[in-house]
Predict the structure.
Amino acid sequence: MALIADTSISGARVAREWDALVRIYGKPSCIVSDNGTEFTSKAILKWANENGVEWHYIDPGKPQQNGYIESFNGRLRDECLNEEIFDSLADARRKLALWRYDYNHVRPHSSLDNKTPAEARRALEQSKGSAPGALAQLETDHYQPQGLSL
């Protein structure tokens, strides 16, 4: 949904990014994360409470409890972070945005019946409609490299 590159990311920054994601995709009922300081901060606890979003923390040292994100993180590391040399923070943001676009809009995923995530989302919206709280209507299908594309 978002790849954020910066020298440091605070809980307050994570909460601001979640606000932007909620405007785009709708509010999730639950978020699962590890116990990193940015996710256990007062800012995140406040954000989750104010937005009525359950926040579930995996057990320390048990990344298998969040297998989907661990798989994604491995793919991001193998295909982008280990393959690229970043000359600057701006260069890292640009390369992450390009990788994210390719991942979501170009390459098919076998777990999605060989559709891209964007195609699978559109197919779900067409077959079931947008269920309240499940999928928010997209304002555009065009990739926009500003905002949360990093």
